[in-house]
Design goal:
Blueprint lengths: L1 H15 L4 E9 L10 E4 L4 E4 L5 E7 L2 E8 L6 E7 L4 E3 L2 E3 L13 H15 L4 E5 H6 L5 H5 L5 E6 L2 E7 L7 E5 L2 E2 L20 E7 L13 E7 L7 E11 L4 E14 L4 E25 L5 E29 L2 E30 L7 E15 L9 E19 L2 E34 L7 E5 L7 E26 L8 E16 L2 E7 L12 E4 L13 E4 L1 H6 L8 E5 L9 E17 L4 E22 L3 E24 L4 E12 L3 H4 L3 E4 L4 E4 L7 E14 L3 E13 L2 E9 L1 H7 L13 E8 L2 E14 L6 H4 L1 E15 L20 E10 L3 E10 L2 E4 L8 E3 L2 E11 L4 E8 L6 E5 L5 E6 L3 E9 L1
């Protein structure tokens, strides 16, 4: 009965407004006909306005019949006014073409850099939530090959690196698992095996038109983004024929090899402009590598500190990216349009690694002074990592990563008071590693010395080491397969609703469905040679690397290894040459299957109280159902059975955002929002690994709660007519039930019985085992502030000085985590949330005129806690980083330009340290990169 009354009220309200009309249209650049998103379209004399979307489209609902003047305001462009007549029940379509212009008092050239900044800042200014925008022009002008490298320049954002490329995103100090990434509003699945992280280095920057970084959420957005959400928007269909091509080549000094890049964009409208299409393709081939050392530190009972393991690693890496996308839209009439998008990203990551490991190190103590170390003894291992000798692997480990997304969307003006949109999408990510091989030789009982004279670069040397004494240890081959798929669907409606006469008000409501499945299916085989032809390292084909040119220092000598070609050509599956045996210890525990279904509904109310103050009030409900399967394993090798766990939970998520426009340039925003973060897939997998030989148990935790956060934000932004901004804001987040890895070295049979009721208890009475499991902590308080300044220096005298522009931002973050226990069960004090970088800074200085543009960019992130260990001494920290990049571009003609780019001019390494800053855990160097090319735009 209540439902019928609500429907009766809705339709009575709807048709009571039947005598109204609609105004809609597009706003584009007059020269290139590209859409201008974030434009403010106002009805003159009334507090009614609309903001253009990423296609440049705007819409006014529920407009009374009559004649009106529409005015467009767009920072960096001349304003425009057009007259429009509205008729009953009709959609009056009026388009605008704006021309780039300088400020009213100064003639500033609005070139490529400023056009990109104008698009970004106009969207940021007119957004209801707090966030940042990067336009395609900005991405193109920064020297960034992938989306991850572009994102590191956003205020409050830092990136974690893999092989010199920005991969995992940290927003306002919150780890990648607390952030989300979408493509055109649809979630991107993860190809990572354990977690939900989206690899940002997989997507080329030239495939994306706009990057939105939302630091606060409204109720119509997916809730799993405590730190923030990143939305990647692909190119919209153009309003005229567009052809763009890029051809570039580069040089990578670390391996003295080249890189090759090509890109093509074609777009046009057909069938009397009803059908729009844009096709994009990109290719990038980079051959490089890295130089790496790694250490594991330990203290003995007397307080002596030394290395219990050390490694020297040489990587040779080739990454080949292929990406293509297609966007279509069809306009049935002024009231109905559909959109189709497809994008396919394919990256081959090919790698050889040559690793020397010093481990099983035991200290030798003085016979008289028994607390004094006089030497060390251990073993040395030489391992080659590669792959099968075929056309795909080419003797290298092949990591075949593919991410694809397909979506269909519709927009329908049902009535002058009812707007409806819907979408459905399917996406899949897969990481496939076929034919991955390792071969290792070992020498035991080697005398060692350790030199700590260079505190951050300790050196371990040996005596008596000889390749003639290195004996065959193992040769293996594995195939790893991780995939994640997601089907999503949503429907939204929008109707006018205001409680303040003559002021704008809107109600939005919608439904959302997400069906996800993730699985990991790894296989691992060990091989034993039948004959004795490879018993010693001297028996096989080898390759030797000295320390010359090795970035951590020439004192680190990788040494001699079995060659990658030799490893790749081994006929391992020939039974007359090798005995083959499956090794369950390498895959039984890590394989799992996860299914999730997420149902959501929301209500959002946008209300203007006057021409200065507006509000967005929202409420969202998300229900999550999970179905996970993991393995119960004995001594890493025996499958005792599978464990299945199902669960369901519902989260209620209110939000409130206020915006106050003190004047036309000064905007103040305040927000109180809620968000959540679901645990990583593998953390939820109900596996149990009982290692009786080592008295250890490792387990997943299907009973983990989601991390829930209450967020409070205040931001003040002042925009400059000359395309710029000065802003400052503070934020506070209170996280409940955050997740960390719990360790207990006094785990008893009673504790096991309590934690795993109904399962066979492997711990004998009276014994203490070690236990590791992800658990919920108590709470975390995160607070900080960010400031930004961006401006063209148009106030300086002379045309040359006016061409300079500055971009600066700084973010401070502090956090305190409670409820974390060490391995002895004691609560740890003064612990920050892993991933919280206290200081982040970006800066750039640019100059441009009508033909030439150049920019120098810097990026700094201070050191921060990356991963909690069993105690403070074993905590892992991500060390500070400072990057310096540069790029320049010159227009040969209005359609053709040349460009040059240089990355990592400081040769900034990736460095981790253990416990204290002097104890290097890992340091990896990549050297600079250089790129040169041509770009054609027709």
């Amino acid at each position: 009965m209540k439902t019928k009354l609500l429907l009766l009220f809705f339709f009575t309200f709807l048709f009571s407004q039947a005598q109204k009309g609609v105004i809609s249209g597009k706003v584009v650049d007059v020269d290139d006909k590209l859409p201008l998103p974030g434009a403010l379209v106002q009805i003159v004399g009334m507090n009614k306005y609309a903001v253009t979307d990423y296609t440049g489209r705007y819409e006014f609902l529920n407009v009374s019949p009559g004649n009106y003047s529409l005015q467009i305001k767009y920072m960096g462009y001349a304003s425009a006014t057009n007259e429009v007549q509205v008729s009953e029940g009709k959609n009056a379509v009026i388009d605008f073409s704006l021309k780039a212009a300088g400020t009213e008092l100064n003639e500033v050239v609005v070139g490529d850099i400023l056009k990109g900044q104008a698009k970004a800042l106009n969207q940021q200014k007119n957004n209801k939530n707090i966030g940042n925008i990067i336009s395609s022009d900005q991405v193109g002008r920064f020297p960034d090959a992938n989306i991850g490298d572009a994102l590191k320049r956003v205020s409050g954002v830092t990136m974690q690196y893999d092989q010199g490329e920005a991969r995992n995103i940290i927003i306002r100090g919150l780890a990648p698992s607390l952030n989300s990434v979408s493509l055109n509003g649809d979630r991107i699945p993860s190809a990572e095996g354990d977690n939900r992280n989206v690899q940002m280095d997989l997507i080329p920057s030239d495939m994306i038109s706009t990057i939105e970084v939302n630091k606060t959420l409204t109720s119509d957005m997916d809730a799993d983004a405590i730190g923030g959400s990143v939305n990647l928007i692909t190119r919209a269909t153009p309003n005229k024929e567009r052809i763009s091509a890029t051809l570039a080549g580069g040089y990578l000094p670390i391996r003295e090899k080249g890189s090759y890049t090509a890109g093509l964009v074609y777009g046009n409208r057909f069938f009397d402009a009803k059908l729009g299409a844009v096709l994009s393709a990109s290719y990038n081939n980079v051959d490089y590598g890295s130089d790496n050392i790694e250490n594991e530190w330990v203290k003995d009972e007397f307080g002596n500190e030394f290395l219990q393991a050390a490694e020297i690693r040489k990587y040779d890496v080739q990454r080949i990216r292929r990406s293509s996308s297609l966007a279509l839209d069809y306009k049935f009439d002024d009231n109905n349009s559909i959109f189709a998008n497809a994008i396919y990203n394919w990256r081959d990551d090919k790698e050889n690694r040559f690793r020397t490991t010093y481990d099983d190190i035991e200290a030798v103590y003085d016979a008289v002074d028994t607390q004094k170390i006089i030497g060390y003894e251990g073993r040395v291992r030489r391992q080659t990592k590669g792959g099968v000798d075929n056309s795909r692997n080419e003797n290298r480990r092949l990591e075949d990563q593919r991410v694809q997304n397909y979506s269909l969307r519709g927009e329908h003006l049902i009535h002058s008071t009812l707007d409806l949109d819907w979408s459905a999408n399917y996406s899949k990510a897969r990481e496939y590693r076929p034919g991955e091989r390792y071969i290792e030789y070992r020498q035991k009982g080697v005398d060692m010395t350790q030199d700590f004279s260079e505190s951050k670069f300790p050196l371990l040397t040996t005596s008596g080491e000889s390749i003639a004494k290195f004996k065959f240890d193992s040769v293996t081959e594995n195939t790893d397969d991780t995939s994640e798929s997601e089907f999503g669907a949503k429907v939204n409606i929008r109707v006018p609703f205001t409680v303040v006469p003559s002021q704008k008000g809107r109600l939005r409501a919608g439904l959302r469905l997400r069906i996800k499945e993730k699985s990991r299916d790894n296989k691992f085989f060990a091989y034993e040679p039948v004959n004795s032809g490879m018993g010693l390292l001297t028996d096989v084909s080898t390759v030797t690397f000295d320390g010359k040119g090795f970035n951590p220092g020439a004192k680190y000598i990788p040494g001699t290894f079995a060659s990658a070609a030799y490893l790749g050509k081994l006929d391992l599956n020939n039974a007359s040459l090798f005995d083959k045996e499956e090794d369950p210890a390498e895959f039984l525990t890590v394989n799992y299957n996860a299914k999730e279904k997420i149902y959501a509904t929301y209500l959002r109310w946008d209300q203007d109280f006057n021409d200065k103050l507006s509000m967005v009030l929202g409420f969202r409900v998300e229900n999550t159902k999970i179905d996970y399967t993991g393995n119960r394993v004995l001594d890493e090798e025996t499958l005792e059975g599978q464990i299945n766990n199902t669960n369901s939970y519902t989260n209620l998520l209110p939000s409130l955002t206020l915006q106050y426009k003190a004047n036309k340039d000064l905007v103040i925003r305040a927000a109180a929002t809620t968000a959540l973060a679901r645990p990583d897939y593998y953390a939820l997998a109900p596996y149990v690994n009982n290692i009786a030989a080592d008295r250890e148990i490792a387990a997943g935790n299907p009973n983990l709660d989601v991390t829930f956060s209450n967020n409070y934000d205040l931001m003040v932004e002042n925009y400059f007519k000359s395309v710029g901004i000065i802003s400052g804001g503070v934020f506070y987040k209170k996280l409940d039930d955050f997740i960390y890895n719990f360790s207990d070295n006094q785990y008893t049979t009673e504790k096991f019985a309590k934690d795993f009721p109904g399962q066979a208890n492997p711990i004998p009475t009276g014994e203490n085992w070690s236990f590791i499991q992800p658990k919920n902590g108590d709470k975390v308080n995160v607070f900080g502030f960010e400031v930004a300044f961006q401006r063209q220096l148009d106030f300086l005298p002379g045309d040359f000085l006016k061409g300079f522009g500055i971009y600066l931002n700084y973010t401070y973050t502090n956090s305190e985590a409670k409820g974390i226990a060490d391995e002895d069960g004691n609560e740890r004090k003064n612990i920050s949330l892993p991933g919280t970088a206290p200081h982040m800074f970006n800066g750039s200085l640019s100059w441009e005129n009508k033909r030439f543009s150049a920019r120098i960019s810097t990026n700094f992130t201070s050191d921060y806690l990356d991963e909690l260990g069993s105690e403070a001494y074993n905590d892992s920290y991500y060390d500070k980083q400072f990057f310096l990049d540069a790029n320049a571009s010159f227009k040969i003609t209005s359609k053709l330009r040349i460009f040059a780019e240089a990355n990592n001019l400081t040769n900034q390494p990736l460095r981790y340290y253990q416990g204290v800053v002097a104890n290097t855990k890992q340091v990896e160097y990549y050297q600079a990169r250089y790129n040169f090319g041509l770009k054609l735009d027709l």
